[in-house]
Structure prediction request, 808 residues.
Amino acid sequence: MDKIIGEPKKAFMTGNETVAWACLAAGADIMFGYPITPQNEVMHYWTRLAPKYNRGFLQTEDELSAGFTTCGAVQVGKKAFTATAGPGNVLMQEPFGMAEAMRLPLLTVIQQRGGPSSGTVVYSQQEVTLTTYGGNGEGHRIVYSTATHQEIYDYVIKGFNIAWKYRFPTFILGDGYQAKMREPLEMYDPQDKGIEMVKPYSLIGVPGQIGVDREPQHLCNIYSLEEELYDVVMEVAAEYETITPELVEFDSKYCEDAEVIIVSHGVVSRAADDAVKILRNQGIKAGYFRPITLRPFPQQQLRECIAKSDAKQLLVAESAYGQLERLIKQEIYGETIKINNLFMPGVGIIDFDIINKVKSII
Amino acid sequence: MAMLAPATPKSWYLPTKPHKFCPGCGHGITLKALGEAIDELGIQQNTIFGCDIGCSLLAWNFFACDSTQTHHGRTTPVMVGIKRARPELITIGYMGDGGGYSIGSQHLLNSAVRNEKVTLILVNNTNYGMTGGQMAPTTLPGQITETSPYGRDAEATGYPTRGPEFIAELTPEGAYVARATVSKYKQLRRFIRNAIRNQMEGNGFSFVEVLSTCPTNWRTNAQQTWSFLEDKMEGYFPVGELKNPLGKGDK
Amino acid sequence: MSLIRIALAGEGGQGVQSVAEILTEAAYNENQQTIYIPNFGLEQRGGVSIAFIQFSDKRIGAPKFNKADAVIALSGRAIGRTAGYSDENTLFVYDSGFEFDKEDLPKKAKKIIAIPAVDTANKVLHPKVFNIIIMGAVIGLTKVVSFDAAKEALEHKLGHKFESNPDLRELNYRALEIGKEMAEKSLQEEVDNNG
Prediction:
């Protein structure tokens, strides 16, 4: 694969620009996109970079089309991606559902904005439910929630590999803050970090001669019989459960003796991290748990954190009205620990907010 | 006497025959014309056939060509994505009037404007067949369907969509636009062949609407079916090539 | 250097965001940790534009903050819009060249000072280097980056313009210098007045 970055190098840029560079370094062939804030600059940077590296781009008529064109491109073996937010994410659930059904390795970057409806163009963590479980029926997907530009870079590269290795649609769940802020990161070519990029492959338009050395490939996502669909859904569910241990990622700190464990994801986990340190300095035993994969959710790991600590309480902090909390509740069903919340839908959370909340509940 | 063409095109996938369309349905005729066109052009090995939801879906494993099946109205963007990613492949999208003119109209319209190098075949049978015969954008004024049980009231629901006419308006030079009918088989096959050739030559967007029959939902016998097609439909939807960059040399 | 948080606010078009961009790039080049996030909304132009900037020698947490170490407000509206970011530890700076309602000034601040940046830009230098004066003033007030790093970042950002018009380089450097001195003087006067 071509080297794009050369020697690993430091950079100072926005999250959207980071996405474009990471896709380039990961060997993405083509992007399909439709304008929506706050992801626009992913397209802006990609359209500037793509022609220099012989990569493709199409601005489609809407997000349905952006999703379905991406589905088409991956079916014929190209690393394709798209990016969206908010109402665009709603429209894209239709193609994402097809990708789940047909096991299409899409990579999608979601930069969450406020909702419901058009909401704000700024920031939120209100697209967790939609991004993790947005399809009709019961499809399977992989969702990484990033917190820093370095993670955006790392997980975009990883996301392409995971998508093509396991053939599940894969998501990088960012937000307006991550999209628009500038911070330092290190860019690199995957091979320089010992990362082998999974080669894309065609599902249709495959090599060989039909009727000579191979059968025609017929892909479908609809079945005549209930039993046919049942078999497919059960088979995919079983496969997903098998690979779940390889997929789950999380971070935890100071949980061993914690009295209260703060659970957060994405950019809010940065504030939670600071809050825990400040609380510890003040003699309050706070712990930190952050799911990096929201789907599959590191439920076993969270249960273990609760078990090994003395914590009587969880505090779920999110820039949403309970989307992470609902995930946690379903994932740790049976635990008796009290779950508190700090819900700030559509606005940023800082360490101060979390510290105050912790003090109010202990 | 002229030799008859072989009954089964080479590009048909035999394990899925006989096909699943209703008796008297025009899809079989259209797909035969498409199969023969694929054979004549020798493109079976590098064609991607894509079909919509609706009766067109039943063609998902019809051909011995690599094929994909999409969502209702979304065949156009999937074909566009494939063509953009691998321009060497011949992409043929297959859809009904509901998929193309109603739920997928924004894709059809914008792909036409962008002159995407894909071939789309849209089968117009004036109703939603698979879902049980509802009114479609192409339902004729006065025509009875499940959702226009007293006949289509054009004042309340608009007049039938004339697709090739608006696509001809929207597309730039290089596009191929035609309307065929299953009642004129040789012309149908020629138009489809032209629409594929036009893509192969890289000229532009290539579109054929095919007027077709649906006796099941029309609740017509053989004679009434044919009469509705030839007298009513062909009267409202003129058959012919609206745009042909290939010139007159083709027959 | 421990964490320093700056809210820089002005009218759309005043160049607040480019100042933030150049300053944070200068800090980045000096191997500091730095984050900059603009407030962005529906308007492409117009409205109060705020840059939230943080500098530190340690990893920085949340990209936004509720109280700043320094607030620099560059219009009447910007004063009212940013007063809430000020508390008893905040240096609140506004431009003396704008009309504003005294009620809009923050109720809590470590110091509130006015600087004549607009006036200086218009009379002494050139209106278009107003934002560079402000950048100099931020450096004078907070010492977040060295003067040399600021010049270097300025060169990086505007070098292509300087190439075709070398006088512009001098003008920008002077604006930076004047802004810095202006801020240092304001701080000194404050000390003198209070002392």
